[in-house]
Amino acid sequence: MSARLARDPSPFRSGLVHSFLGAFVLTIVLGSGASAMHLLGTSDAASPMVRVALFEESPSDAPNLNPRLPGYEDSIGFAQTETAPTASNLTSNEPDLGVEYADAQTVQVVSRKPAESRGVRINGQSVLPGQTFSQVAQKNLAAASVVAIDSAPAAPTPAVPDDTPLARYARAFSNPEGKPTVSVIVGGLGTNRTRTRAAIEELPPEVTLSFAPTADNLSGWVRDARRAGHEVLIELPMEPYDYGRQSPHAQVMQVGVSAETNKQRLAKLLARTPGYVGVMNYQGAKFATEPTAVQPILDELNSKGLAFFEDGTLARSEFGASAQQIGLAFGKATSWVDARPEADEISQQLLLLESTAREQGAALGTGMSFPVTLDILKDWLPTLEEKGIALAPASYYAKRSRASGQVRQASLNPQG
Questions:
Q1: 401 — phi, psi (to 5°)?
Q2: Rg of the chain (C-alpha set)
């Protein structure tokens, strides 16, 4: 029995012995490695090193500084030339909103050389021994000089510019050849993300976009539309004859309330976002027929420098006559292109716009952001140029109507 135990040792004892031997060997290996690193290694390689640019050593060792920080010019000692933006050097990704830049002026910025002595850098300023940061900052500010070089003679003082929203946010348009023009407003935007994004990105920038005041993130949509080059309108909810059957907007323009109440509601609607050239009615069949209710609203819009557009859905309206009396920039749609959102009907209404433009010189059409409307507009709008018709923003139509002193109504000659 004892001989058998000697030939077959206990598994537990064997495992314990092998574990001890393994730990012993590992200890020897790790200890030898640590001793070798301690004796042969360098202290600089013992941990990560971060170089902090606190002292100026030489131009070749100068750190890469942020050029927007104060004192950048002092740290590298250079003179640079900057040119004012012109139409030729604008990036192609910027929308064309009709901004015209004056002739470029060359500006030469001359900064003093950095000090030769070593010093501490504080907020981009080199502070030498014996100096304080405030002294260096004041000295650098006084030493910097900006010299404007302009070979053109001094221009006379310009007249006070028109700073109304209609002038500031309108898309630039010129028609030197006197072509008939067609303007298109696509409304109801902001309530459906997919349709709104399609209208902004897929329609030509000359198309004016009108947003519902109930839209979420209204200011964001308006900003995106203007970046794409579109003019923007805000829709004003107005009282229809069947008012109350559906949930009305809280700030709806009503006949049965005071003019002051309607003005307060108008102010709340207009305060939701900046960036629009004017407003357009939403519904309002009843409100539009009451001159005493209409006039205070149009007076308020005129005082704010906004245009007003009638969407062409109203059978009877006082908007045109009231706008003419006060000289308000006004545009009444000559065609509501998708009153019936069917392809054939929309195409017929677009032909009506072409005919009206040729007869009267200008035409304005309105439509909603239905998918069928957007698809047909994308195909039809590029054909206007070959037909001798210019696509104009809605503001051009409103300004033209105001300049002519009359509001022209669309009509077709049945004799052709």
A1: -65, -40
A2: 37
For residue 157, the tally of other CB atoms under 10 A from its CB is 6
3-state SS record for 267-290: HHHHCCCCCCCEEEEEECCCHHHC
pLDDT digits (tens, 9 = 90+) for 171-198: 999 999 999 999 999 999 999 999 999 9
Based on the number of CB atoms within 10 Å of its own CB, is 258 exposed (0-12), middle (13-18) or buried (19 or more)? exposed
Burial 348-369 (b: 16+ CB within 10 A, else e): ebbebbbbbbeeeebbbbbbbb
Rounded Cα distance between 326 and 229, Å, is: 30
Report the sign of the C-alpha dihedral through residues 389, 395, 399, 402, in that order: positive
Beta strands at 145-149 and 106-110: parallel, antiparallel or unpaired: antiparallel
CA pair distance 258, 388, nearest whole angstrom: 48
> Using one digit for the tens of pLDDT, what is the confidence trace for 325-373?
999 999 999 999 999 999 999 999 999 999 999 999 999 999 999 999 9
Give the homologous superfamily in CATH for domain 165-404: Glycoside hydrolase/deacetylase (3.20.20.370)
Q: What is the mean pLDDT of residues 214-232?
A: 95
Distance CA 62, CA 351 (A): 69
CA 249 to chain CA centroid, Å, is 27
* Annotated domain spans of the chain: 66-85+102-149, 165-404
For the chain, how many residues are written?
416
Nearest in space to 397 (alpha carbons), one of 175, 200, 227? 175
Sheet holding 106-110, edge to edge: 79-83, 106-110, 145-149
**Measured distance CA(211)–CA(273) in Å, rounded:** 11
**What are the CA-CA distances from residue 189 to residues 5, 146, 204, 367 (Å)?**
93, 48, 16, 11
Residue 5: count of CB within 10 angstroms of its CB: 9
